[in-house]
Amino acid sequence: MQPLTRRHFLKAATLTALSAPYIARPALAQTTVTVASLLGEDKPETRIWRYIAEKAEERLPGRFRFNIVANGALGGEKQVADSIRLGSVQASLSTVSALSSWVPQLQILDLPFLFRSPEHLGRVVAGPVGAELKGALADERFIVGGFIDYGARHLLTKTPVTRPEGLEGVTIRVINSPLHTGLWSAFGAVPVGIPITETYNALATGVADAMDLTKSAYAGFKLYEVVPCLTETGHIRASGVIYFSQGFWDGLDPEAQAVLEAISAEAALYFNALIVEDETAAMQTAHENGGIVFQPEDMDAWRAGARNVWADFAPAVGGMERIETVANT
């Protein structure tokens, strides 16, 4: 009998390994993520999802296929939010205004003349208020990946309006929420809720004669063609969320959830920077197509109307003391 040498041992081990049956690790199936975007490929609302898709492919190759449907083809914000809850759309962006019918506490981010700057808003959503709002949205089947800043909302009109009294009796398109309705009613306007995707036609046909919106979206929807006067009221800091359907989210493994959460946080910063750039380009486009910018007069009067809204909505957002705390953050 030959002695067992190291060479014999290695040969035997190799033969055993080669003769053993191959057991493959199960591959994770690719998941399609249908994303709704209100605007075109060149706008931040769509570019953010191209960014998220690219980063997801880098970190989890082959795990996701992002089907990004642009130009509002899947409906306005409320329609998309309903689809997110049902699971037929897996991801989108939304203003907090559009989600406040499910989570009234979100209206604290929509209070007029509350936020002094983008940095002020950023501190609030990164703190306890933001964490609480994320939890409330999760209870309604909306999983928040991050908060975003669409920029300030400004007054858009067919003829110049620089003082609050100029809105008396004017029909104004609003986000269909009690806060936005209450704000413009306080100035004597007649609010009418119209989805953003239908707003151009409503303004063109006289269903409404004014609205408010961010500069980026003003150009994105070519609204300078129907409401050429933009008064820089900056009355509301238009905050929003990157959000996912709970059914989609719950179907992911913990690693995929962690990766998408990290990418969403990065994407929120990317989006905010894009908005700043896009506002400059948007106003240049508006100017070239007949848009005119006006400065508001009598800001004390504008703010006085806003303070009434604070008082009216204090019970829904946690009380006046909480509003003052956010104001001083």
Verbal overview:
It comes from Martelella mangrovi. By secondary structure, the protein is an alpha/beta fold. The chain has a single domain (30-327), classed as Bacterial extracellular solute-binding protein, family 7 (D-Maltodextrin-Binding Protein, domain 2), CATH 3.40.190.170. Helix content is 46%, strand content 20%. The protein has 13 helices and nine strands. It has helices spanning 6-19, 44-59, 77-86, 96-99, 118-125, 128-139, 178-186, 199-204, 215-220, 246-250, 254-288, 299-317, 320-327, and strands spanning 31-36, 64-69, 91-95, 142-157, 171-174, 190-193, 210-214, 229-245, 292-294. It starts with 5 loop residues before the first helix and ends with a helix.
Sequence-ordered SSE layout with sheet pairings:
Elements: H1 6-19, E1 31-36, H2 44-59, E2 64-69, H3 77-86, E3 91-95, H4 96-99, H5 118-125, H6 128-139, E4 142-157, E5 171-174, H7 178-186, E6 190-193, H8 199-204, E7 210-214, H9 215-220, E8 229-245, H10 246-250, H11 254-288, E9 292-294, H12 299-317, H13 320-327
Parallel strand pairs: 1-2, 1-3, 5-6, 5-7, 8-9
Antiparallel strand pairs: 3-8, 4-7, 4-8
Major sheet characteristics: 9 strands, mixed
The number of helical segments is 13
The CATH superfamily is identified as: Bacterial extracellular solute-binding protein, family 7
Helicity, in percent? 40-55%
Average pLDDT, all residues: 91
Task: Return residue spans where pLDDT drops below 50 for at least 5 consecutive residues.
Answer: 1-26
Could you give the order of the helices and strands? HEHEHEHHHEEHEHEHEHHEHH
Strand percentage: 15-25%
Structural class: alpha/beta
CATH topology term = D-Maltodextrin-Binding Protein, domain 2
**Assigned CATH class:** Alpha Beta
Distance from first to last alpha carbon: 85 Å
Give me the count of strands.
9
User: Which overall shape is indicated by the principal axes computed on the Cα atoms?
Assistant: globular
Based on the coordinates given, report the CATH architecture. Answer: 3-Layer(aba) Sandwich
Radius of gyration: 25 Å
Tell me the domain tally: 1
InterPro entries: DctP_fam, TAT_signal, TRAP_DctP_sf
Signal peptide: 1-29
Pfam families: DctP
Family: Belongs to the bacterial solute-binding protein 7 family.
